[in-house]
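We were asked to recover a plausible sequence for a given structure. The inputs and outputs are reproduced exactly as logged, with field labels preserved.

PROBLEM: sequence recovery
POSITIONS: 154
GIVEN STRUCTURE:
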């Protein structure tokens, strides 16, 4: 129940809603049961919240780059991310070739990565993203907000 209440509080901050703190369920409801009973949300807020919750931990692949937005801390711990070396750079634009597969976790920053051979198509990554670049990828990094990241080459 504490976990659900924490999720409810996070959602409350995301969409600006009122929560009935006196509500006590007879059985442990699902996350959305709590919303339906305890919260006053417009249809638009419900839709936005539903999309935000689903997108929060969704992994995607575009142009050969895998991105997982806001992975759970348990995954970062399992991978040993906090023990990986760190690297950072100021806003800049530069070419890069991956001679090995790299997995990185961005602590700060915002980057558009333009893989070679895809014209103006890019993948945007930023703080909180766990990203995997394949071995052999050639690309251009366009860093708009200074980067601080943990990285690991395989």
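RECOVERED SEQUENCE:
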């Amino acid at each position: 129940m504490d976990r659900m209440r924490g999720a409810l509080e996070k959602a409350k901050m995301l969409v600006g809603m009122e929560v009935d703190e006196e509500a006590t369920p007879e059985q442990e409801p699902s996350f959305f049961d709590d919303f339906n009973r305890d919260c006053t949300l417009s249809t638009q807020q419900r839709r936005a919240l539903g999309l935000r919750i689903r997108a929060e931990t969704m992994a995607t692949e575009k142009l050969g780059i895998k991105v997982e937005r806001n992975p759970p801390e348990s995954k970062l711990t399992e991978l040993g991310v906090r023990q990986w070396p760190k690297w950072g750079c100021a806003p800049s634009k530069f070419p890069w070739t991956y001679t090995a597969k790299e997995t990185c976790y961005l602590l700060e920053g915002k980057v558009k990565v333009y893989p070679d051979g895809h014209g103006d198509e890019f993948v945007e990554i930023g703080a909180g993203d766990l990203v995997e670049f394949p071995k052999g990828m050639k690309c251009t990094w366009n860093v708009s907000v200074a980067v601080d990241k943990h990285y690991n080459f395989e």
